[in-house]
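Standup notes, structure subgroup. Blocker cleared on the zinc ion input:
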Amino acid sequence: MKSESDDVLRDFEKIVKEIIPDDCGFSKIEAEGLSIVIYVDDIKTFYETNQLIRKIAGALKKQIKIRSTPSFRKDPEETKQFIQKVVPEDAGVNGIYFNPLFGEVNVEAMKPGLVIGKGGETLKKIIKSTGWVVNVLRIPTMESSTITGVRKSLLKEADERKKFLNKLGSRILRSYEEPSTWVKVSALGGAREVGRSCFFVETSNSKILLDCGINPDTSDKHRSFPALNEMGCSLSELDAVVLSHAHLDHSGFIPYLYAYGYEGPLYCTHPTRDLSVMLQMDYLNLVNKSNSVVPYSVKDIHNELLHTIPLDFGEVVDITPEIKLTLYNAGHILGSAITHLHINNGLHNLVYTGDLKFGFTQLFDPAHVQFPRAETLIMESTYGGKGDIMPNRKETEQMMMDVVKKTIERGGKVLVPVFAVGRSQEIMLVFERYMREMGLEVPVYLDGMIREASAIHTAYPEYLKHNVRNKILSGRSPFESEIFETVKNNRQEIIDGDPCVILATAGMMSGGPVLEYFKQLASDEKNSIVFVGYQSPLSLGRKIQRGSLNEVPLPTPNGKTDIVNVNMEIFTVDGFSGHSDRRQLLAYVKNLEPKPKRVILCHGEDKKVNNLASTINKMFKIKTDSPMVLDTLRLK
Ligand SMILES: [Zn+2]
Ligand SMILES: [Zn+2]
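Run returned:
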């Protein structure tokens, strides 16, 4: 028996055959992920016939991909030579790989623009002459093992990926007997708390997860992971998972979904895909070392990658037959996105901010505020409390440099616990500029995944603010300044050596190399520690930040405990945050177009969430909610 999607596809085939002229040689149509793929024998004639793609896309109301029938493609070796001939040498091509199942040739280049050509003319030339579609990939200016690994995996597992995409394509094509009449959202994590962010959006026909993170700062298993058991359905029934950004409190539990029965797609931006893989691998490594419970394995991260469908900002896609998804810039970290769901022809529109920066940073434009429609806004509240007003950026940068100068002058070292992704790069840009201007010649050491994360930034300059982007594109990447040194096997030498600045993970001191430095630097009053990011109430970072511990017990690798005396000077410099402060959160709601009818607040400590909810309610006369984990709200 044929399924319903086959009927849809047969109807599509009839329409396409009527539009495509016979001399193009239509050979096959298939559903593949979000697209309908059409195979033709003579792709040259196809492209030279006016407006064919536009006509087909208009008739099917779908994303269309055109491929030449495999037997009509030129031989790979010949194609390779042709590409080398038509692409200018300045493009810095360093790798041409074929992916026959997708009719694609991956061309890795330092300058993708030169491979594409003016108005895409070089790409067109290649496809018309060879039948291969070029997939241009930017080579990061700093070598990144993550990006190399991700690209290799996707190529090696093309077979599996193709099967998954065809299956997904069929699933999206089916139609529902009855259109949805209601929408509800349940908080499974990250509600009146920071960590394990996870929302479950449900209609009569669709089931979607927004984020699925861990709380890395607690070992309490009831608060470490989202309450997936309370979803009321099995993981295999989920239609889609949408990931806002790569931080583990949003992405850290996604591989678990694949380990326990989920086989559907993960939607996020390209950089979020790569950064998530990097952070999840790092997390697994740390957990394995600490003998704690490991919720999943490398194989599951790999599986997640195979099922990831990367999207660009502003691209509108059908993720179920009745839900359209669009991602927009959230301004928080590289690739961070606001999720917009358009449900059942406008029955309801939901905007989920993920982590949000609506203010100035060196790296990103402020968060997007205009949406076609938005009845409900789910917004983060990390710094939504009464007193959460950050100093302005100029003061913040000055404060940081004052600490550095003072500490270096007295012969000490400055330790900055950071997240590998986000604050590290923001602070690197500040150091790069000020040290040059101040003539301070001290090395800045990077330990943990910071260098690797920075390298991933250089593969996606289009996501960065224009001046940083231009520097990277013109070969002057600030991340490669000579003041930065990556720590390899010389950690002890650095600890014993001359005054310096050390950026080390993890940001809340829950583990990672920062603990090693802290252990050895804490007792010397000449040294300083500077907190620049959010510290959760449960974290060691928060306890040290508050100065409430004169002695810190730290576990040693052999299972014993070291007592560390804290004499180093403790500073907090808040203004670098990738989160909005209270004023910026209120400004975000104020600037949002159109005005939402309801605001649901999450990703904040109890008091802060409640306080922000009541302020928004009073200021804007909007219904607000501050759900707890396990609460379900009906939106429509
Ligand atoms: Zn984040
Ligand atoms: Zn977060």
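Discussed briefly. The longest helix spans residues 270-289.
Next: hand off to the docking folks.
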